[in-house]
Amino acid sequence: MVNSPYNPVLLYVTDPMCAWCYGFTHVIRRLRALWHGRLTVEVIAGGLNPYAREPISREQKERLAVSWHRVQERTSLPFNYSLFLQEDFVYDTEPACRALHVVRRLRPALTLEILRALHSAFYADGLNLADPQVLAHVVRPFGIQENLFYTLFEAEEIIDATEKEFEFVEMLGVKNLPSVYMEGGMGPELLVSGFCQLDELEGRLLQHLEMV
Fold first, then answer.
1. Environment class of 71 (CB within 10 Å of its CB; exposed 0-12, middle 13-18, buried 19+)
2. Which end is more exposed in the chain, N or C (fewer Cβ atoms within 10 Å of the end residue's Cβ)?
3. Full-model pTM
């Protein structure tokens, strides 16, 4: 492993309702474990499909089902397709991203673990993360009381911060979720765009550190 003069900070741009992120969060967690104490991972809410208001169409469901199946084949993770049976399902990812902001405020050290739990709730359990009650239920085992969660979730400060983070991600020029950036002297530098396995991610990180 390369001896770096500093502990790298990785920006993990993701969304709790992004299928490829569901697979990639496991990769990020394994990298952090391998590099324990040697790097920091900051979770950034990318906003896959925020502020949606209309139920997804049959055609959209079919496209999503194909995408989910590809992720399932690549990662062997469980998927629950029952949400596609709901006629009124609105694929709005803003509430789940906003929940990440609440989590970062209350349990910053557990953000990545709670993101994993949100992924599992949506993809494996078929729960609708656009529902604040579902979000409160998912984060409760991590020591976040429902009343406190709801208070922060509805706070203008958190709502504004979520929107500003979407703008930050757009300013970065993120093309795919997931994406990983490394903080550098000239600002965030792209390491990975889209899903990859652990060996590729770690290889990109080592290569980048060699150039520092």
1. buried
2. N
3. 0.94
